[in-house]
Write a structure and sequence with these properties.
Radius of gyration: 19 Å
Shape: globular
Number of strands: 10
Oligomer: single chain
Number of helices: 6
Structural class: alpha+beta
Strand order of the largest sheet: 1-3-6-7-8
Length: 228
Amino acid sequence: MTNLDTSKDLPEILAVFPLTGTLLFPGTVLPLHIFELRYRNMVEDALGAGKVFGMIQPVVPRQDGCPMPGAEKESPDLYRVGCAGYIEKWEESPDGRYMVQLRGINCFRTEEELSLHRGYRRVKANYGVFTNSQDQEGWRCDRAALNGALAEYGKAQGFQIEISQLEKIGDCDLINGLAVALPLHPAEKQALLEALSLGERETILLDLLKLGGASDVSPSGTPSRTLN
């Protein structure tokens, strides 16, 4: 639990940590090793204020499944939607690096990017459209459909999912936790993040699992995905 009042304490000017393929969802916990000077500055500033910063993905143009030449740059374009998190635990090493435990609080949409501050990027964040995205009233996860899709996905991807272990997890934590943990493409994870409700996120997740679980059998007997 955090001591953050999300209705009052989420900053309009939000420091962001761009990281491809590593997303934060509301309610999930993300451990981070912060070693670059600009992001050490970001954590230091966050600890001195509301202990909040945002995780967001860079947009990396792709061609035939591979990054296009010149796609990597110092300040790549960012997706419009990220998630603000609260630093609930941290430890600073003698050389200035931070080990941070960040808990997702609320998704945000970027209104505009601002100038750099102490080397790190900042955005003007709008949280309003996502304020009720975690409201579970009237929604229940379709466990049977999800379990079936997960079993087929795991079989096609070559790993086993212990369905029985998922029964202990609440509906909200299950959907968000799977969105974080499954080996999905960054663009697929972004689609999950941008969902405006848990029900919408569940629908997208089921669709992605079904695509990932669709396979044929190669001559060697190894399952292979039919869609990339």
